[in-house]
Specification:
The protein is of the alpha/beta class. It has one domain: Rossmann fold (3-Layer(aba) Sandwich). 29% of the residues lie in helices and 27% in strands. It is built from 6 helices and 7 strands. The protein has a 7-stranded mixed beta sheet with strand order 3-2-1-4-5-7-6, with helices on both faces. The chain is globular, with a radius of gyration of 15 Å. It starts with 15 loop residues before the first helix and ends with a strand.
Length: 189
């Protein structure tokens, strides 16, 4: 879709769930630390996080998306480490570890079942012990070409290694269909 220039997900408002974590609306803001933006696309969430003091690594598999992300970050005068990598192989891609915040605005819901298993393994491998993982996705059947994922599936796939802290609707995704978010944290080991 990047080749033909049709990227309807680009330039959307930042999810309320992400703004609440970063800016602390109803609860204290997370202290800025290291963040990983999975499936970062053209970098909107990565840039937002960097503008709020986070050290951000944005990961995507599409070179054209990463080129646009770098251009946007430079224009906004923020530093983001954009890396071309497969989200099912993060630990071997050298993106780093110990991320305090991991953001996924519509990556997991596009993966196959096999890739979803690898995604969970890889996200778990790069997360800090008390990280927050924020996943936004569409319900199955909401958008042509998107497999979709339910909140229940996210919780099932990440249990028992992760705890679901909260979940809810994502009104920012309504132009694509019914969307939701899940916020998780690794369980103490």
């Amino acid at each position: 879709m990047y080749r033909v220039g049709f990227t309807p997900w680009d330039g959307h408002p930042q999810p309320t769930s992400l703004r609440d974590l970063v800016e602390g609306n109803d609860s204290p803001a997370l202290p800025a630390a290291t963040a990983l933006d999975i499936g970062c696309g053209t970098g909107d969430a990565s840039i937002y996080l960097a503008q709020h003091g986070w050290q951000v690594t944005g990961v995507d598999f599409v070179p054209r998306a990463l080129a646009k992300a770098r251009t946007k970050a430079q224009a906004r005068q923020v530093s983001v480490n954009f890396v071309r990598a497969d989200v099912t192989r993060l630990s071997s891609a050298g993106v780093g570890t110990g991320f305090a915040l991991i953001v996924d605005n519509g990556c997991l819901h596009n993966l196959t079942d096999k890739d979803r298993d690898a995604y969970v393994r890889e996200v778990s491998a790069v997360a800090a012990p008390h990280a927050r993982l924020l996943i936004g996705g569409l319900d199955p059947g909401e958008q042509f070409g998107v497999q979709g994922i339910t909140r229940a599936e996210i919780e099932r796939r990440f249990t028992p290694a992760w705890t679901l802290l909260s979940s809810g609707d994502a009104p920012e995704m309504e132009r694509f269909g019914k969307g939701h978010y899940s916020l998780l944290q690794p369980r103490d080991t």
